[in-house]
Amino acid sequence: xxxxxxxxxxxxxxxxxxxxxxxxxxTQAEFARDQNEVVRIKGLYKKYSKKANWxxxxxxxxxxxxEIVGLIGHNGAGKSTTLKCLEGMLPYERGExxxxxxxxxxxxxxxxxxxxxxxxxxxxxxxxxxxQYINFMADVYKVPxxxxxxxxxxxxxxxxxxxxxxxxxxxxxxxxRQKVCMMGSLIHHPKLWILDEPMTGLDPRTMHAVQEFxxxxxxxxxxxxxxxxxxxxxxxxxxxxxxxxKGQQINDINVKQIxxxxxxFDFEEYFLRNEN
Amino acid sequence: MKTNTKILRERFERxxxxxxxxxxxxxxxxxxxxxxLRKQRVERRFGFTKGNFDAVGFILRLALVxxxxxxxxxxxxxxxxxxxxxxxxxxxxxxxxxxxxxAIAYMFVLVLMTVNSVTAVVRELFLADDIKIFSAxxxxxxxxxxxxxxxxxxxxxxxxxxxxxxxxISVALVVPQGVWFYIMTVLLCLVxxxxxxxxxxxxxxxxxxxxxxxxxxxxLLFIAVTLLAAVAFWLYSIVLTAVxxxxxxxxxRYFFNAQVMETIRVTVTWxxxxxxxxxxxxxxxxxxxxxxIVLVLAVCTAVSMLVIRSILTRALQARISGxxxxxxxxxxxxxxxxxxATLFKKEFVQIxxxxxxxxxxxxxxxxxxxxxxxxxxxGASLLTKLIGINCNLELALFLxxxxxxxxxxxCSTNISREGMMFYSVKAQPxxxxxxxxxxxxFCVLVSVASQLIxxxxxxxASYVAWPTALFIFGIGSIFSFxxxxxxxxxxxxHAHFSTEDDGEIKESGNxxxxxxxLGMVMAFLIGGAVLIVRMMIALRLNxxxxxxDYLSYVLVSVITVVVAVLSYLYLITRLxxxxxxxxxxxxx
Lengths: 276, 588
Prior knowledge:
The complex is a heterodimer.
Chain A: E1 2-3, E2 10-11, E3 26-27, H1 28-35, E4 37-47, E5 54-64, E6 68-72, H2 79-87, E7 94-99, E8 102-103, H3 108-113, E9 115-118, H4 130-140, H5 145-159, H6 174-186, E10 192-196, H7 204-219, E11 223-227, H8 231-237, E12 240-245, E13 248-254, H9 255-261, H10 267-275
Helix pairs in contact in A: 4-6, 5-6
Chain B: H1 4-24, H2 30-46, H3 55-83, E1 87-88, E2 91-92, H4 94-127, H5 129-134, H6 141-174, H7 179-214, H8 218-247, H9 250-255, H10 258-269, H11 274-281, H12 286-321, H13 339-352, H14 355-387, H15 392-407, H16 421-426, H17 432-460, H18 466-493, H19 510-540, H20 549-572, H21 575-581
Antiparallel strand pairs in B: 1-2
């Protein structure tokens, strides 16, 4: 039995091409996996100007429901650029990015509606209070009124902004801005949560709470992609790790599988070896 | 007997103690000043490098300054010609008149420069982002102050050159002067910024304290700055009235009667240090004047250095710790509202809670009707007297368009002021149409409200009939819409996001100059052209002038609607594609 991912049609025979759209069909196993695919990045190329070098070259990977995927690499390797292309912030020259089956270029609104993101610079409206910012995000992602308070309370349990949520964001510290960014990005309960350097600036307690939250969030069937330099965090949190070097994807490794076969696997050593 | 450890410890403490003592003393480090200046030079050059330099905007900026200088030279030269011939007790005293004129002019320039240097000192010393970095470095307050002051001096010097040279050359054309006058003019240009910066540094602290008090009280700040600007405009209207008297000729001499001249004479004796500068230039009481100028300079510099040194570190630490006490209504979880409504609210909050934005938009929009009224008061009687026909419709239209063009200049930062948040919003499920149309609607609403008050003022003051006021309101609104659409898209095409921590745009760029020039050109084209056509008809075909009334309405309506349609088309053409492909602005 074969399936067409595009038309969602099934065929009893083993035909390789869909008679309706002419695209390649999938086997049952492939189809089941594709149905779970939340992110698909295929052959991504990005450069910042015509004369500049490629910032990202031929990066391809997929993320599935319930997975936590880490992007690691040295400074300027192309992690943030990849994530910004994924979020729709930056245009890219070549390649394809699908989020929940929606092309970020052709259907940007549908693709963005199902994701939440936290940028590396904690961009947030400084003249709003934390609460106003979260209300803004809830409005943008059309969160029903009755769900807002409930979600806000559960997020408050994790991030613990307390009464500071009523203060202007401009008076927040680095870590507090990070927290309000995270809360705003989660208020619509996105299927895909993208974080660029999420642990930077967080206190150890919040960092621990965020890690726990990430585990729970992914266990509920959501997908998390994040970039980080903290290899221990990556090893502790991720199911898979994508290693990027000088804009190129070096490896896509299954952390859980490696740790199962070799519990003493040293990620730092692995990273340094691959970096060189 | 002391052990070796004790001796070593004592020696160490002695060395460390002397080191700490010399470290605590805030000495002026000239090599560090040089390094800081080099950093500033690199930052300044960045704006002129290939790809970052907006040649058209830069030329338009220069053109704008040139126009202002030309207009000033014409009016000031004419005024000086009349003023220097005024007699007191039937005796002409050209030198005394010249002294008064120069002293008042220098005082005016000095006040402007001092206001500018107060804001510059506060911006550079208390608010600049690099200060945060320097506060953690071994850079003394004195060194930092000198480095910052040198960069302020450069901009002040430029301003002094433009204003003082203009004033002095205008005066010299009326009353020819010797070489001394010209040499001293150059010296004055060099000294005037020093005086303004010294006074400015002294006033910077009280200004900063008032600013810190008002800043979190958004509504109070709005009222305070609007009232202050209203007073400034009222003073400006007095100047406009004097200009009217000037243009009407004899009335000006009548205005400067014996009593007024005596008041001016006494006032000028108190205009320190401007009167000393005027004296020095006219080779009058030179020793006293030069001592006075040097004293003012020395005292102000010493006191300001002392004040800045003592408060700078504490002010910075307070800023870094973020102990700001903002005052606003506490808001809880809000009910769901549409994307349009939430973007609209965001726009309002961002502008209202940023003092500079609040003033340049809300305050100016509120004051625009006042400006139209003041100028109408002067212009209406002037035109009636000059050409003997009522051109109130054309004049009101011209003034409305001119001031609305200046009000809407704020929209030329509609995109740039978003800063990093532009990219964040781009990653949210919001269409470019929603983003741009919310901004356009917000600005149009503010502008239309301003136009409505302006038309009401024109109607109530009986300058125009009510239907005409309504017509002016309509044309003003369409014109505003056109300018806002154009300015927003132009800013998007030339976006330059602020790299400051707070993302606030603190200096007007070339886009702003471009929009000012284009707005003024359009105001002249629509309002001015009609006014000229009307005056020409009135002067040449006086008997049939009334029948040409309709011409003004038709001409203005057609041009305005065409401009609005073209601007809207400019806004929406390839907007979606450009938005999704956008990666400019200098942040990515």
